[in-house]
Amino acid sequence: MVSAEVREHGHEARVNARADGLVPALTLLARALSPGVPPRGPRGHAVLPKELLDEFAAMEDSRDARSASDGGRSASEDEEPLPGLAVLRPDAGGQEPRPGAGPAPLDWNASLAWLRLGMSERLRDDCIAYLAARQVEGVSLLMQQMVKGALADVLIEHLEIEGVLDDLADGAAADDTPLGPRPPVDEHTLTRIQAQITRTDRALLRLLGAHGFTSAGPGTAAHASELLADVYCGPRPATSYETDRTGHTGQAAKGAV
Questions:
Q1: For the whole model, what pTM was predicted?
Q2: Are the C-beta atoms of residues 80 and 86 closer than 8 Å to each other?
Q3: Residues 198, 234: contact at Cβ < 8 Å?
Q4: Which of 6, 11, 65, 132 is deepest in the core (most CB within 10 A)?
C-alpha cells in the first residue's frame, strides 16, 4: 500500500497530465516525491524534465557538480524522447545511490501509473476530437459503430486501471468487495497496470491512423509515456489474452483509418 499523501500526489499528476501534458505533470511529481535526486529505475536510468537537471545538479556533491558544469547538463544525458525531457544513463562511475535517496519504488511507480493514466485520457480526448472532425461520405468517423466500440473498450480499460490504483490507498479494507478479499497490490501488479496503459495507448494511436505518428500528432507523447514505464517498471511480455484483446481492438481501428 502507499500513503494517502502519495496517492494525492498521484491524483494531482493524473489531472495535470490530462490538462497540461507529460512534462509539466512529471516536473511537479518529481519535485513532490524526489526533490533532491533524480528518481532512477532498477537499471539506473532516469527520464525527467530538463529543467530539473539544474536543480538536481545544484544539490549533488562537488564531483557531480563539476561534471555538470558545462551548460548545467550531465555527461550522462542521452536522447530527447519529447521536447523538454531528457533520458539519463546510469552514472559513469557506477556508484550506488545514497541510502534513502529518491522515492520508494512502490510510491514512485504508483504515482507514475496515475500520471500515465492521465496521459492516456488526454490521448483519448485528442482521439475523440480528431475523429469527430473527420468525415467519410458526410458522416463523422466518430459515429462509425466499430470506432465507437473501440473507444468504449478504451474507456472500460481506463475505469479498470483507476479502480486498481484506487485500491492502493492507505487503509483500504481487504474484504469490502462482493467477490471477497482484494489481492495485494505490489510491484508486479503495477507492472501489469503499466502494460495495460501502454496497450490502451497503442489502440488509441491505431484509431488515429497516420496522424498518431506524425510530428504534430500525439504519438511522440505516447512514446515518451511508454518509455517512462519501461525505465521504471520494465517491459512485461503480453499474455495470449492481452494479444487477443489488442488484436480485436486493432480490427476496429482499421475502420477508422
A1: 0.79
A2: yes
A3: no
A4: 6
